[in-house]
Amino acid sequence: MIEFDSTHKTQAKEHPSFVSYESTVPPRYHFREYNQLVINKGVGIILSFIVPSELMKSHSTPCRRDQTKIKNGIYQPLMPNRIRQCLILLCLAFLTTNLQVAAALSTPRPAISEIFSLHKVHLRGNNPSSPWCYAATIDPTREAPGVKYNFLATQVWPSARTASFLLERNADAIRDWKVCELGCGPALPSLVMADLGLPQVIATDLDQVALDMVQEAAREQAFENLITKCVDLTGEEQEDGYSAAIIEEIGADLYIMSDVFENASVARGAAGITMKALQSGAKVWTFAQSDRAQREIFLQELKELGADEYVDVMEWRNSDDFKVEQFCNHPLMLFDLDEITVNYG
Ligand SMILES: C[S@@+](CC[C@H](N)C(=O)[O-])C[C@H]1O[C@@H](n2cnc3c(N)ncnc32)[C@H](O)[C@@H]1O
Description:
The structure is a single chain. It is built from 12 helices and 11 strands. By secondary structure, the chain is an alpha/beta fold. It folds into 2 domains: 6-19 and 116-341, 3-Layer(aba) Sandwich (Rossmann fold), CATH 3.40.50; 31-106, no CATH class. The strands form 3 sheets. A 7-stranded parallel sheet has the order 7-6-5-8-9-11-10, sandwiched between helices. A two-stranded antiparallel ribbon has the order 1-2. A two-stranded antiparallel sheet has the order 3-4. The chain is elongated and about 100 Å long. The protein starts with 5 loop residues before the first helix and ends in an 8-residue tail after the last strand. Bound molecules: S-adenosylmethionine.
């Protein structure tokens, strides 16, 4: 079970950029270090070609300790000086590269605000005192070569707004619950739940940038009841093909998913996790736009796994059609939404 330990909060509060620097951070986020590695390699290669030829000019006679082999009465070096010097310099260049990269890796990662332009997105656009999350504008010129940040994970999608308003409307029913959001992105629903004063909110995603944005937003709003966790919905590496074990570890009363079906394997993985959550006695509320084709894969997989018993009708339905009691009577809620009619407050 995930505990809300005070260590996390203290570390989060004290650190200027509110970012943890464990080695588990995905390499794609090591922006400066990656550039440094490329530069160092280039410098190493240039050094190993230019410097040896320069050295050869001043050391044309083999030094004494190399003269180990005699041919026609003349001492021959075992390895020509040029090659030896090249090898030494290559080693030095390699060593320098690694030392510098190690030094760079041990320095703190830049705060996300140094890499992205962040802006606040309020639950109610016209009310600056309503809870908010961060969204990011990614500048492609600042991306490390070969690295793409996930645009989808840094924006607030209509489903997240619908989920947030629905959670707010049902605040009394969920007040004492431990809630976990899966595939949270900027996590507007999680931040709204933290603002409602729920005892424990866990915002999860695979994307470290998204999780950093959530941590930063939680810190600035002084939400100590919210933590983030890296969770992969696909769980392709897992024995059961799902990351279902995470349900036992988190042990939430309610799991929220808003617009997470990015591809078929996420949809299938999400279905496996949903089933596991329902079996554990938890509730699952899923939000998806009608134009998200992968949501049907999710539904199909749920049917195959036997989730029918947890829902009254196995189809996507508008959240306005439900009354509060229904949220508690049916563990599995499948919310459909039309992005044209989404409330922006
Ligand atoms: C369209 S965004 C929705 C973000 C947020 N839930 C919202 O509605 O604003 C899809 C989210 O799913 C996450 N995601 C995609 N594949 C994932 C995976 N395998 N495991 C966990 N999260 C994943 C992405 O990182 C992204 O944050």
